From TrEMBL:
Transmembrane segments: 6-24, 31-49, 55-73, 85-105, 117-136, 148-172, 184-207, 219-251, 271-288, 300-322, 328-349, 358-377
Cellular component terms (Gene Ontology): membrane
Taxonomic lineage of the native organism: Bacteria, Bacillati, Saganbacteria
Keyword Transmembrane: yes
Organism superkingdom: Bacteria
Family designation: Belongs to the monovalent cation:proton antiporter 2 (CPA2) transporter (TC 2.A.37) family.
Official protein name in the record: Cation/H+ exchanger transmembrane domain-containing protein
Amino acid sequence: MEISAVLLTLFIILVAAKIGGEIAEYFKQPAVLGELIAGVVVGVGALGLVKESDFINILAQIGAIILLFEAGVTSEYESFMKVKLWAFTVACVGVVLPFIFGYFVSHYYGLGVIESIFVGATLTATSVGITVRVFQDLGRIKSKEAQIVIGAAVVDDVIGLIILAVIIGIITSGSVSVINILRITGMAAFFLGGALIVGNVAAPTLLKFVHQMRVRGVLFVFAFAFCLIMAVASQAVGLAPIVGAFAAGLILSRTEHKEHVERQIKPVADIFVPIFFIMMGAAVNVSYFNPFNPANHSMLVFAALLFAVAVAGKLISGWAVFARVNKLMIGVGMMPRGEVGLIFAAYGLSHKIISQPLYVAILVMVILTTFVTPPILKAIIQRCPPNS
């Protein structure tokens, strides 16, 4: 992709994102919903102005990393630690129920065992990016409900990785490697626990030293570099980079430079985060939703079933919290599958675990859960007082 093509694509993405966000806010909807719809309009399924490329996809991934880093920085660490048990509980329920629902719906729909297991696995994911952005747009990112959802989504990522490892083990060897599952679980726990413990000790000292330097922007640059190296470390142990980015933000939220980093990250996020949401919308092919095409009927019915159980499984997870919180808000916040579900689906198709029609059905489920969450979550948040 030539530099002129890249620059033109970025121009279209950023302008479309801001116009879409403005229109959404005009109709009193979260800006992220407008960005997603704008992505559909300029994407391959409609106007075809924005096409995927390796470079643009990398920028979109960086946008997701920055989004989670910002979410971590703006979080109250003490509040997050207070809800860690509830976050884990919500995550477990939000993984087990969708997996079971997805497996049995797929199995009774006529799919094989491996395909049914894989479909169940795709339903376990939670796209924290969508929910985080809605909480941010409405100024509720520090609420107890938001902290539970973010924490649960991080745990979801770890559990989803283990499930994927199990599926790969079944396919490649015909049996599940317990050692491999224990290794991945141990590495995930070691990374998350170790990062928070070591980071809480080292980060304040490092930032204090950096703060004495006189180069312009040095404090924020080092903070952002810390985010990047944590994302790299997260991927090195087999986790998604967004997990490391969120952990980095959470660590920096405990330092005396929290407000400075929080203020400086906003303009960076304003550039990169819309790329992530536009590209998510751009991947949608609107022809999948055409009910007048007989070839789509079977897929659309199955997609509708997947959507129903995907929503039900996550909604129920909100009631796993016995504390005084808005359980419906938590359940809805866990609904979107977003990029995590897309990654699962793409992996299954590329490794011939699932067929093309099944891939499309999963894709439709992911799209629907992603698009319906922002307006529903906004309506719930507006009815819920900030101190509830």
